[in-house]
C-alpha cells in the first residue's frame, strides 16, 4: 500500500486525511493517508520514520505549521515556486531523492478565484504574516495579477526579506510590493489574508479594521474554531469572511495530482467537507 500523511504540530485538528482519502475514493486510487504529530526539532527524524514504515511504501507527505522551512531544508530537489518561497508543504519520495514543492499559493489563489469568485487581477492585497504560509502564497498572488501586495509582519525584517526575494517577480508582473510593520499598516485592501498562526493560539486579530475596503474579502488560512474570531471580526466590519477550508482542499488537490497524476474533483470535496464541518 502506498503511504502518505500530513506532519505538523499541532496536528489533531487536520482534515487532510479525510480530504485525501475522499480524493482516493473518487478517483479510484489505492492509498493510505494519516496524520503524524511531530515533536519540535524532530522533523527530519519523523520523515525518516515514515519512509521506513513497514506498513507500506511511503510516497510523500504534506507539511503544515511549523515545519515548512524544515521541509525546504530537507528536500534535495525543489520546484521553482518552492525555491522562491523557501518553504515547502509537499514532499515526494522518488528514486532520485526527496522532492519539495509548495502548493499553498496555488491552492489559495484557486480558492479565491474559483470558489469565492473574486478575481485577483488589479486588486490590492494585504498579506498578514511573513512565515511559511505567507512565503508560499506571495508569488502566486503576484502571478495572478494583483496590483499591489503589502506584507505586514510584527518583525519588519522578516517581511522585508520576503518582499526583496519577490522583487523581480513583482517587477515582471508590473505589481507594487512592500513590507510594513503590523501595528502601523497603512491603506485599505480588496483582499486581506491572515497567514499568521495567531488563530491557532486563540490570539486576537492582528490588524485594525481600517485595512478593509467595504466588501473586502477577508481570508484566514486556518479553519474551524481557530478561524472563528477572524471571521467574526471580518463580518462585523463589513467584509466577506472566508476560512481556510477551500485553500486546504485546493492545495491538497495540487498535491494529490503531483503524487498520483490524477486531478481530483476539488469543488465536490470542498462542498462535502463544508457540510461535514457544519454538521
Tell me what the structure shows:
The protein has 279 residues and is an alpha/beta fold. The protein has eleven helices and twelve strands. It has a six-stranded mixed beta sheet, with helices on both faces. The radius of gyration is 18 Å and the shape is globular.
Parts with pLDDT < 50 across at least 5 consecutive residues: none
Main sheet: strand order: 2-1-3-5-6-4
Largest pleated sheet? 6 strands, mixed
Average residue-wise pLDDT: 95
Strand content: 15-25%
Shape: globular
Distance between the termini: 32 Å
Give the structure's gist in a few sentences:
By secondary structure, the chain is α/β, with parallel strands linked by helices. The chain has eleven helices and twelve strands.
Annotation keywords:
11 helices; alpha/beta; 6-stranded mixed beta sheet; 279 residues; globular; 6-stranded parallel beta sheet
Please write out the topology:
Elements: E1 2-8, H1 16-27, E2 32-37, H2 43-51, E3 57-63, H3 68-74, E4 77-78, H4 80-85, E5 90-94, E6 97-101, H5 104-115, E7 124-128, H6 132-143, E8 148-153, H7 156-165, H8 167-172, E9 176-181, E10 189-194, E11 212-220, H9 225-236, E12 240-242, H10 245-260, H11 266-278
Parallel strand pairs: 1-2, 1-3, 4-6, 7-8, 7-10, 8-9, 10-11, 11-12
Antiparallel strand pairs: 3-5, 5-6
Helix pairs in contact: 1-10, 5-6, 5-10, 10-11
Amino acid at each position: 500500500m502506498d503511504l502518505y500523511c500530513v506532519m505538523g504540530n499541532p496536528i489533531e485538528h487536520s482534515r487532510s486525511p479525510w480530504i485525501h482519502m475522499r480524493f482516493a475514493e473518487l478517483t479510484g486510487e489505492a492509498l493510505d493517508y494519516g496524520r503524524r504529530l511531530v515533536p519540535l526539532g524532530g522533523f527530519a527524524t519523523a520523515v525518516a520514520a515514515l519512509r521506513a514504515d513497514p506498513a507500506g511504501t511511503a510516497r510523500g507527505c504534506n507539511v503544515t505549521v511549523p515545519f515548512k522551512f524544515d521541509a525546504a531544508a530537507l528536500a534535495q530537489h525543489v520546484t521553482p515556486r518552492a525555491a522562491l518561497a523557501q518553504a515547502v508543504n509537499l514532499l515526494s519520495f522518488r528514486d532520485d531523492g526527496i522532492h519539495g514543492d509548495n502548493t499553498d499559493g496555488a491552492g489559495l489563489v484557486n480558492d479565491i478565484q474559483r470558489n469565492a469568485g473574486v478575481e485577483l487581477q488589479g486588486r490590492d492585497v494585504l498579506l498578514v504574516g511573513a512565515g511559511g504560509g505567507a512565503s508560499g502564497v506571495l508569488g502566486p498572488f503576484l502571478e495572478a495579477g494583483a496590483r499591489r501586495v503589502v506584507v505586514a509582519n510584527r518583525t519588519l525584517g522578516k517581511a522585508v526579506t520576503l518582499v526583496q526575494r519577490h522583487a523581480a517577480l513583482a517587477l515582471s508582473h508590473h505589481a507594487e510590493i512592500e513590507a510594513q510593520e503590523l501595528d502601523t499598516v497603512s491603506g485599505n485592501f480588496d483582499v486581506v489574508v491572515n497567514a499568521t498562526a495567531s488563530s491557532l493560539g486563540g490570539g486576537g486579530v492582528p490588524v485594525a479594521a481600517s485595512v478593509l475596503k467595504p466588501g473586502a474579502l477577508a481570508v484566514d488560512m486556518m479553519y474551524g474554531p481557530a478561524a472563528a474570531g477572524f471571521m467574526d471580526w471580518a463580518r462585523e466590519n463589513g467584509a466577506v469572511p472566508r476560512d481556510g477550508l477551500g485553500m486546504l482542499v485546493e492545495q491538497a488537490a495540487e498535491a494529490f495530482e503531483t503524487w498520483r497524476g490524477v486531478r481530483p474533483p476539488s469543488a465536490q470535496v470542498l462542498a462535502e467537507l463544508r457540510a461535514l464541518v457544519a454538521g
